[in-house]
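Suppose a colleague, Dr. K., hands you the sequence of a protein chain of 165 amino acids and asks what its three-dimensional shape might be. Before reaching for any lab equipment, you can write down a predicted structure in token form. Begin with the sequence itself:
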Amino acid sequence: MQQQSNRILSGLFNSQQLLAPLMAGVRLAPLTNIIENDDSFLVSAEFPGLQVDDLDICTADGAVILSGKRFEKERQPGDNALHQEFQCDSYYRSIALPEEADLQKINARFYQNILTMEIPKKQTLNKNSPTFKITLNEQTASTLTGGSAPLSAPSSKLQELQSSS
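The predicted structure, expressed as tokens, is then:
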């Protein structure tokens, strides 16, 4: 009698059973980790029960969009479900990344239901890159424009710049 009461009460307070009808058709967000290092961003996402063919990855507006659908296994004719918690689940996650992420060069791997993506950073000038001082005079202006007519500046501005050097 006590075991039966416990079973009934545990069934009443089992949140998965209570929420399952409400969750039908709801998209789940996969658990993710996003790590930044010097050269790239590493994104990991967990997709329980998915096969690689059930997973879609695309990019839009500076974000990586992950989606997938897990299908329930087909029952054999004549099988009656006495209890069922497995269901068809849909996953969706949009991950916005900084502008420096090169979304054209994503390297992705799917292993044991974990999607791991390495997204390299775009090449930018680093702090050790040489810097150049540009002075404004007719010779420099001519060189900058490839030998064509020199750049012109208002004479008062040009005098101001020449007197400050």
